[in-house]
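cron nightly-structures :: item 1 of 1
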Amino acid sequence: MLGASLGLAYLAYLYYADTPWTRDGRVRVYTVQVAPEVSGTVVRLNVKDNQFVRKGDILFEIDPGTFRNAVTQAEGALDAAKAQASYLTGIADRTSRLTDLAATPQQRQTTRGQADAANATIVQMQGAFAQAQLNLERTTLRATVNGWVTNLLLQEGGFATMGQPALTLVNADSFWVEGYFEETQFPRIADGDAAHVTLMAWPRTPIRGHVTGLGRGISVSNATPGVQGLPTVNPIFTWVRLAQRVPIRIELDDVPCPIVIAAGMTANVSILDTKAPGAPPPDGRPRIGLEAGFPCGQGRVVGRKGRQ
């Protein structure tokens, strides 16, 4: 019995020493902050907090009345500029055909300059008209990614301010895990290595993944500039040196049922001494991307709609 215990302890030591692993892992995700590019009253709010939306879905609409009026005004100004340019161009053409007794060179130059200025005004009015149309289109805000609405700050009837975030979209197709490994483990980690990830909520259900990147830098306290712009170096140096933790990015190959992932979850990460095979899971289809954010069976239906 004692021998078996010692053998198990030795195997556990070998696993700890030879297999890079960490309990300091987090589920990460990209987010998109949605802020209107025009200001106005919200007349229609199509979403609620934590709702899933597909790319292209309308999130909310700003009162378009003022912007429709701006389009009409810009269109009228453009038509007036075209009419003025046509009139002045005709005068310049007729003046240029007159004899020297009927028109002086100064008159020809003046009429041609007025015509050129009028044509330049047309270009200016075309830009104003295009901008007015663009602002009208911007009164309707759509989802730019598949994901979940979070941090919704708007209400129907409220005022949306240009450039001020109104909500955030959690990009459902961008989940990954970041494990923070001690620097002493780096010699045994390489891009493409297979990885096993377990979440605190589902400790007995591993997630398959692979290494896609090693962090190339972390903050160094001694490099922080002081009052004089010089590095602030800690004068105390202990004999015990702690290994720094550096982030390793793990892309998820398959998230098995019943796991539902969310950004910020705690993860244990182990790096295997093999390359990720890329083999499909037992059911023949990996569960990745937005599907991993839904209970099993729901994400595939939504995923197909989201990729139309």
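cron nightly-structures :: done
The CA atoms of residues 42 and 157 lie 5 Å apart.
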